[in-house]
Amino acid sequence: MSRLVAAGEGLDARICLSRGEVEVDVALTAEPGQVIGVLGPNGGGKTTTVLALAGVLALGEGHIRVAGDVWDDGRRRLAPEQRAVGLMLADSLLFPHLRALDNVAFGPRSRGVSRHDARDRARTELERVGLSDRATSRPRELSSGQQARVALARALATDPALLLLDEPLAALDPDTRARTRSDLAARLTAYDGVTVLVTHDPLDALTLADHLVFVEDGRVTQAGTPAEVLSEPRSAYVGTVVGLNLYAAQGDSHGHVHTADGGLIVTTSPTEGAVWATIPPSAVSLHRHEPEGSPRNAWRLRIASVTMQGQSARVGLVGDVALTAEVTLESVTALGLQVGQGVWAAVKATEVRTYPR
Amino acid sequence: MRYAGRWRSRVALGVPAALALLLLVVPLVALLLRADWARIPSDLATPTVLPALRLSLTTTSVTAVLCLLLGTPLAWFLARSDHRATSWVRALLTVPLVLPPVVGGVALLMTWGRNGLIGQHLAPFGIQIPFTTVAVVLAETFVAMPYYVLAVEGAMRGLDPRLESVARTLGASDLRYLRTVGIPLVLPGIAGGLALAWARALGEFGATITFAGNFPGRTQTLPLLVYVELERDPQVAISISIMLLAVSVLVLGVLRGRWLR
């Protein structure tokens, strides 16, 4: 893949700059048509990365090459208006005094297209996001979801080689978000440039992106396809995002892994050396008394939190091994689970997965 | 007991408050009471008033246009810059606001006078600025521009800077962004700044009489005429004052509707 990129297609970037507290050093490569999901905790450097790609911030070091053009090489930098880039942020940031059509036509007009052709193009783009009937509406007359779609149409009306979406759905209410997410997915399949989608919502990333990059504290902690990331998280943050109990551990040859906190986990997977160990929350069973028989892992832990999620409950446990268990609402009531209470947690050795660190 | 204490504090605060209000309002009332309303139209039609009125209108209009053309870009630079020098420039801008206008007039003479910083280079070409209509405009611009720039800068600072980032990724240059997005969005601020600057220019007296003199038809604006007429025919001075008061109230109305809120 990287060889194809080097030949001048898609995106090839290494972004090094410091902004405020964060020293960012992030490498991103993508082929045309790919959607890269950039995830990470707030203040970790996601937005800084986007602003550098847009040209609003200058690189300290590194390079940005898009579709064969050098946008920034750490010394010389193209201004945002010289880049074939589209930007969409959480707030749609439509120009409030312009009608939807003129918002979308703004880009082509700025890039020298005649008024007539720019409006034609804008009409096409509005149609693609299903808003041809709102062309003459002002932004304040549109719903938040419609505003987001106009902002997407505006960003795509200049045929950008690189489309930057920074938390495009974050400002929407849950209902609108689900609908706008599928509209966005539909529109992105028809887009042949590179998309960089910044989000902290795993659902956005998993449904929209075909490659994920996790940025924490300015560094890439994990990159891969959603399937890879889902099955083998490699940082505590990624573990939380994909909803697995994750331990950085040291294994011996007897099927024992020792977590950094001194806990012992028994597994049937290979365990030699430094490994990551994962336990799905649904594989944890809770008991009032010490369980007997098949489960190879049983720990006496204390309940730190109980939260409801639909028909199931997530129980946060602390002790030798910090663990999240997902149990049915019935077992919460049957066991009389309460915060602060002691409880036995059991996990079958076959449910513990390990992979090298 | 508590009731009496409340009364005492009411009196202690109420008396000075009422005095302050009276000090401001009584002069205006006095002016209105002394006006001979029937005479106002004929007073304003006297041969001395018309040239002064025309001069005031033209010079203040030119001043407003200068503020718009030169002040708007300055306001934009101030609004978007976070450089340390910016706060110094802004502090410099406020000096004419608090400077005694006479001092401003002297400073203008030192600049444009025959031996002034710039004037000495103009004199060989036969260009003389002091005591001309151009000097009136320069004096008015000197006192009015800061009001305009500060008002417009405030409005521009209220804009979301991300709007500019988005506009630039769409391909807009600074100039195009300003023309199509920035200025349309701060139009109320520009209108307010213009009204404020224009009103300040209309009332200009000290810098004008120092730098431009008091020549009827050439540099004698309405405020200067009021000063002269007060010696010659006080009733004419009062009539002109009433007109200027009406204009001030009108401008205030524009400001409240558009800008002060």
Gist of the model:
Chain A is built from ten helices and 20 strands. With 357 residues, chain A is of the alpha+beta class. In chain A, helix 3 runs parallel beside helix 5 and helix 5 packs parallel to helix 6.
DSSP strand content of chain A: 25-35%
Helix content of chain B: over 70%
Number of strands of chain A: 20
In round numbers, the mean pLDDT of chain B is 91
Number of contiguous helices of chain B: 13
Main interface by residue count: A-B, 25 and 17 residues
Describe the structure.
The complex is a heterodimer of chains A (about 350) and B (about 260). Chain A is α+β, with helices and mostly antiparallel strands. Helix content of chain A is about 25%, strand content about 35%. Chain A contains ten helices and 20 strands. Chain A has helices at about 1-5, 45-55, 100-110, 115-130, 145-155, 175-190, 200-210, 225-230, 235-240, 330-335; strands spanning about 10-20, 20-30, 35-40, 60-65, 70, 85-90, 160-165, 195-200, 210-215, 220-225, 245-250, 255-260, 265, 275-280, 285, 295-310, 310-320, 325-330, 340-345, 355. In chain A, the strands form four sheets. Chain A has a six-stranded mixed β-sheet with strand order 6-7-8-3-9-10, sandwiched between helices. In chain A, a hairpin with a 4-residue loop joins strand 12 and strand 13 (about 265). In chain A, helix 3 (about 100-110) packs across helix 4, helix 4 (about 115-130) packs across helix 5 and helix 5 (about 145-155) packs parallel to helix 6. By secondary structure, chain B is mainly alpha-helical. Chain B has a single domain (about 45-260), classed as Orthogonal Bundle (MetI-like fold). Chain B has 13 helices and no strands. Chain B has helices spanning about 1-35, 40-45, 50-80, 85-100, 100-110, 120, 135-155, 160-170, 175-185, 185-200, 205-210, 220-230, 235-260. Chain B is globular, with a radius of gyration of 23 Å. In chain B, about 35% of the residues are buried. The interface of A and B includes residues 81 and 91 of A.
